[in-house]
Structure prediction request, 535 residues.
Amino acid sequence: MTAIFQTILFMIAVLAAVAVAAKRLNVAPSILLVAAGVGMALIPGLPKIALAPELVLLVFLPPLIYSAGVAMSWREFKFNLRPIALLAFGCVIFTTCAVAAAAHYLLGFDWPVGFLLGAIIAPPDTVAPLTIARSLGLPRRLVVVLEGEGLANDATALILYRFAVVAVTTGAFSPGEAAGTFALIVVGEVLYGLAVGWLSLRLRRWAQEPRVEITLSLMTPYLAFWVPEHLGGSGVLATVACGLYVSWNGPLLIPSGTRLQGIFFWDLIVYLIEGMVFLLTGLQARTLIEQAHGFSIRELAIATLWTALIVILARFVWVFPATYLPRWLIPAVRRHDPSPPWQGPFLLSFTGIRGVVSLAAALALPYFIASGAAFPHRDMILFIVFGVIIITLVGQGLLLPTVVRALGLTKRGKEEHAEELRRELEARREALQAVTARLDKAIANREFPEALVDHLNVRNEGRRQVLPDNLSDDLGRMRQTAALKRELIHAERTFIYHLLRDGKITDEARRRIEYELDLEEASLANRYKDGGGWV
Prediction:
């Protein structure tokens, strides 16, 4: 037990060190974490760390999916449901078939084994590309489509994976029965996920205690995921539906104190899980190399390169027709959603980076089939999957910033951000007008003492003065104001610390004052930071 704890602490230390290096090198942390994991795996004498598939699929995956669902805008998800579905369902199935054909004709795999390899490698991982995309300021819709695809594509792949494993191990497969089961799983999981989301919010509202509510929020994704997974589904769609329900209905049901603490808690949980996932992916290099001794390097390299090429090309082949054909064939779709410039579909096609879900699915393959014979091509599949992950993550991941700049998408993203900022400021003005109207009504009805009314008027006026009249002229002034406010907060915090040191106030009083200053400083950081908030 002590050794396990020491290993976890060591991995967290590596995660932190790599994060610092990634920031200084301006490289996506996910890429460096995988590289660090590979390097650590090849160091002689270090203990081998094997990735348990159930750790990824049952422990790591539920909170990642749920947090992404909660962060997703239901309104934007619904508006982009068609492209999201075409990628999360259509592209995954198409890629599975393309890889199966390549594995059959180029690698000599039987069709069921080829479909199994396709199902494993079909779903892209969106963590790494989305991290890069957000830092580059991509247009909002591209980010939403990538996020939405990442929420649901694992469900399609894991269901296909289950069907393919049964076909390989037993030799029995019925396309009609599989299609019916697939539809039943999709409908059943969505309904179950909505029910779990409803139950979670009601329990949290009854609790009225931030620590209890955050504990319930941590339990929610596991309740949504584990039950459908145990019954033969994927658990992914139920968790997605649960997260989207909480995202849409939670703002008016979750208290502010819980929300403030929950944001920090979930940010930390997701950060640690994502980092561990990429590090563990790299650490599997030694295990896979040990299992690949029965193959020549040339054989493994050819199989991996062919599969990676098919996976990358299949996404391009699918995305462009899926983007433009519905608009050409259906006038209603064209009127509702005109054809986008080609740069957007190209970027969606390019971001087909594979990740740890594929590796976990490959590692979960049984060693024997029903007849007692060895599972066909198991070791080859493991090596191919790991190779495709490395090729797409490192190759496409490093090229992604260059591709985004070459396509001119950063400029479009900045224009969208300026428009989003304009709407945000207008919303703030309208909200203050509504508050002022409510205050005027209270004054007319004499609901509050005059001194309290004066205090509230000062508060509203102060909030109104912060809003600029002209974005192009006042953004610099807003940044200077924010910088000065931070200095004043720091001066007040320093003075309070000196009072504590001199024994003039207690630690409890210092913590209460410090908490208020921290909230104010955090508000400034969120409001004025580049790429989000106001600036």
